[in-house]
Automatic annotation (TrEMBL):
Identification of the protein by name: Amine oxidase domain-containing protein
GO biological process, one term: amino acid catabolic process
The keyword Signal is assigned to this record: yes
Gene3D superfamilies cross-referenced by the UniProt entry: 3.90.660.10, FAD/NAD(P)-binding domain
Signal peptide residues on this chain, from the entry's feature table: 1-17
The keyword Signal appears for this protein: yes
Natural source organism: Brachionus calyciflorus
Molecular function terms, GO-annotated: L-amino-acid oxidase activity
Domain of life: Eukaryota
Transmembrane regions: none
SUPFAM superfamilies registered for this protein in UniProt: FAD/NAD(P)-binding domain (SSF51905)
Keywords, alphabetical: Signal
Domain spans labelled Amine oxidase: 71-397
């Protein structure tokens, strides 16, 4: 078997994207077939020194280095542990694991006898919700990550899934000194943006826009893309590419709702009309109307970003099935920590990776820098059979990987 060097680039977002694209409902040993496990171990074993097959050499124990103790690093470690493969995690942070996952607790999260209010007195500074269709993480199957942790004997504080409330009818809109609930149908301009409530023509949003809910106007411009993604996903990509040079603002000021749906092969609808001129108004929105939609929909500057990005975001968040971890996402990290039994033997904190190189004996040597108590910098080296990098690609660019002799495609991947 030819030895292959690989660095696996993983991040939490890619886990979600892969799930959406390929629906790979697999995790750890319990969901791999015996052949899968054998093939994975064979791929990870170093090449025997002798050209002739040597069973003892092929069965030699291996050690895998994992760069980063974020969710992806911990997830990778769980898979390796379930396969009986030795691992070691190198984490740059001196006192935090979980990467971008960080729950800020206003009261002690470990406080005994805490009330329900105290238990939920926290704010998510990083990831805060998980799509329910990501079965490898939150599915009902025994091998999903949360259930895997709940069934682990070493995890004392079992993570529990709860529904994530993305919106609520009792939240408030407060604009122009006026207050209304989000459940308000927004008919007849309850927040006072219209021209008739601000001194006449040119002083506000044209009445025929402001007197209808703002989200109806947004749907004329955005919903055709979402409908196409549902009905013809391959074709939707082509249309999104065609509009990739548009921001949301430029698209809204130039689009034609009926023509857009017609070009996509979608069903027609009855256009809203200007009551004074009887002209269609589901196209070429004026800037005052676009500013009004942006204000109520998101915030200043939001509509200056890419239309394609906005459409994809809207599609991702169109599902109402979201879940989160009761008590904060950090409790998921705590449970993974307990399941892995992390200690100084397999977790090196405060080690910033600065270099990865391949030696003649096929091993990979990872160089790190640590800061001592007096502030001096110390260089450390760790030797592994394989390395899994879970740090963001932008951060990987700061690591010297010239000694790995990446081909051009891998170099491009690092620069994404």
């Amino acid at each position: 078997m030819n030895f292959k060097i690989f660095i696996l680039f993983v991040n939490l977002r890619s886990v979600f994207v892969n799930e959406i694209k390929w629906n790979r409902d697999r995790i750890a040993k319990v969901i791999l077939s015996k052949d899968d496990i054998k093939n994975l171990k064979d791929q990870l074993r170093p090449e025997p020194k002798s050209k002739r097959f040597n069973s003892s050499a092929a069965a030699a124990p291996i050690k895998v280095g994992i760069i980063g103790a974020g969710i992806s690093g911990l997830y990778s470690a769980l898979i390796l542990k379930s396969l009986g493969i030795n691992f070691e995690i190198l984490e740059a942070n001196e006192n935090h694991i979980g990467g971008r996952v960080f729950t800020y607790y206003f009261t002690d999260k470990n406080k005994k006898g805490k009330t329900c209010r105290e238990y939920h007195d926290y704010a998510e500074m990083g990831p805060m919700r998980i799509p329910k269709h990501v079965t490898r993480l939150v599915g009902n199957q025994s091998w999903s990550l949360v259930n895997y942790l709940r069934n682990s004997n070493t995890v004392k504080n079992k993570p529990r899934l709860i529904k994530y409330n993305y919106a609520d009818d009792n939240t408030l809109y407060y604009f122009n000194g006026k207050k209304t609930f989000s459940s308000n149908p927004q008919i007849n301009d309850p927040l006072g943006f219209s021209e008739s409530k601000n001194g006449g023509p040119g002083s506000g949003v044209p009445d025929h826009y402001a007197n209808k809910p703002f989200w109806e106007w947004i749907e004329y411009a955005i919903k055709p893309f979402l409908d196409l993604m549902d009905s013809k996903p391959d074709l939707s990509y082509e249309f999104i590419q065609q509009y990739d040079n548009h921001s949301v603002r430029t698209s809204m000021s130039t689009f034609d709702g009926k023509e857009l749906r017609k070009s996509m092969g979608l069903s027609d609808y009855t256009s809203p009309l200007n009551p004074k001129t009887n002209e269609r108004i589901d196209k070429h929105y004026p800037q005052m109307a676009i500013n009004w939609m942006e204000t109520l929909d998101a915030g200043t500057g939001f509509y200056d970003r890419s239309l394609a990005e906005t459409v994809i975001d809207a599609y991702e968040f169109s599902s109402g099935d979201w879940v989160t971890i009761d008590g904060g996402i950090s409790r998921l990290v705590d449970a993974m920590n307990e399941a892995l039994c992390l200690s100084k033997s397999n977790l090196q904190m405060g080690n910033k990776v600065v270099k990865i190189e391949k030696k003649k004996n096929k091993n990979l040597v990872v160089t790190t820098r640590t800061k001592s108590l007096i502030g001096s910098i110390k260089t450390n080296t760790y030797t592994y059979d394989h390395v899994i990098s879970t740090i963001p690609l932008g951060l990987l660019q700061t690591v010297d990987t010239q000694g790995l002799n990446f081909d051009l495609k891998k170099e491009w991947l690092c620069e994404c």
